Please model this.
Amino acid sequence: MSGPNAEVNSELVPLSYDASMAGSGVAAISVTNAVAAKLLALGGETRTLKALQDGLDAGEMMPGVPLKNVALGATIDIRQERRVGRNVLGRLPSGAPGMAPVLIGAHIDHLGPKAGVNSLAGKGEENLIHYGADDNASGVAGVLEIAEYLAEQKRSGKLKMKRDGLFALWSGEELGLLGSAHYVRKMAEDQLGNGDAMLTGKLSAALNMDMIGRLQKNAVLQGVGSSDFWEGAIERRNAPVGLPIVTQQDTYLSTDATSFYLKGVP
Model:
C-alpha cells in the first residue's frame, strides 16, 4: 500500500514483470489503503493507518503491527520466462604457474527498453532505451582499456607479470548478480568439486568496475574492508600519482564484487 499521506497516482504498487528473480522466496501483495485500514481494525489495532504513517514520516521508530485473528490469503499465477545470458572472459597469461590470478570485471548489461520500476526516466521517456552510458558502459570501457594496456606492456617487455590476469564482462548484474554468481559457482564446481565451496586461494583478488564514468572530484573505492591488504596497498600505489581517492570499508555491495566476497575473494 502507499499510505494515506503518499502523493502517488495509484494506491497500488504497479506490477513489474521485468527482471524479477525466479528464486525470490518472499511473497508480497499490494493492497489499497481501505483494505489496510480494515485489516488493522479487524486485528485489534486502535491506531489509524494515518497515525501510523504520521509517526513514520516524523522519523519515529514504528515496530510491526501484529494482527490478531486475521488471516489473509491470495492466489498468484506466475509464469516464468527464461533467457540466456553470456559472460565474456579473457585471460592474459603470465607464464608463472601456481599463483592465483587477479580478476578485473564489469557488468555488461543494463535495463534496456521498458525498464519499469527500475527506471528514472521522466514522463514521456518511459519506453526509450536505457543505454547505460555510466551503468555500465563506463565500467566495460575501463576493463577493456586496462586489458589492452597490460597486454601491450607485456608484449613490449615492460611488464613482468607474477600472476595471470582475468578480464570479465558479466551478464545479468541488474537481475541480481546472476552472471558473476554463476561464474564463481561453476569455478568452485570445476576446481573443488563443490559449487558451495569457498574460492580463497583460487583467485587472489576481484576488482570490480561499476559506474566509473561520473567520478569527477573523487575516485570512490568501495569494499576496502574485504581484506587488510587494500588500505596500505592503495595508499602506496597512489602516493606517486596523487589521485583524490575516497575509500569505503563496506563489503556487501549491490554489484558483482559481492559474488566474489561471499566466496572468500577480496
Q: What stands out?
A: Residues 1-82 form one domain.
